[in-house]
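Throughout our pipeline, every protein is held as a single compact record rather than as scattered files. This encoding replaces a full spatial description with a residue-level series of whole-number codes. The remainder of this section carries one protein's record, kept here as part of the documentation.
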Amino acid sequence: MRFVIVTGMSGAGKQTAMKMLEDMGFYCVDNLPVPLIDKFIELFTGPGSELSKVALGLDVRADQDFTEAEHMLQSLRRKQYPFELIFMDADDRVLIKRYKESRRVHPLAGSDSLESGIKRERRILENVKKTADYVFDTSDLLTRVLKEELDRIFLQGEEFHSLIIRVVSFGFKYGIPMDADLVFDVRFLPNPYYIDELKRMSGNDAPVHDYVMSFPEATEFLDKLDGLLRFLIPNYVKEGKHQLVIAIGCTGGRHRSVTLASELYGRLKEHGKYGLTITHRDERL
């Protein structure tokens, strides 16, 4: 039996996660009133039950006190009942944007502003998030990557550290990515822009890639960066960080940064213990 509870901030992707779990063979139940959860657990764990994988969606709702849900989770842990808790999260700015685009009403906003409803919900869920087994920050997370991570956990049984790493290439002339955690400047390498046959290509084209990587400094930079990240990432995980944005920049964000970001992505992919995405922000400008 595998019992998964999915909760988190409204608008952060709980419904999407539930649909993905359903596609994996989970029997999914959403918005079950808290007083009925115990009875529900008894049903699918009792003799004769044919269910082997169950996912339960748990929301903050205006018509019921989430304290009951917290007590239920605490009770399950005291009884050492085996369950896994997924918490879906996103930045406030992203949640606001999603609500405005969908024109939905936040369950806790009432007559107040959308922002106040989101802040109220975040306070209510603060303790639940701390106890979650898996935290997914969907602020910049592609649906495809979320599915890959859920597959790794619930189908392939791989270890998961609740960390999503985004590698971003960019051009300094267009500004540093605002959400970058680590920024690296690769303008110390010769610029393919000044070679006529390479000027209109990008770092994703083999001639530019080969040119940039032909310099020993490029490989040395990657080796040193790889070593630094091998030290930093486990410590970020230990401190509960859920998203790490690594930005690599050159002048225009088209040649050197794209090449080195792609190379770094390939190296990080070999580690295989966290979610990973890559974005070339300024490649086509």
Remarks:
- The chain has a mean pLDDT of 88.
- The radius of gyration is 22 Å.
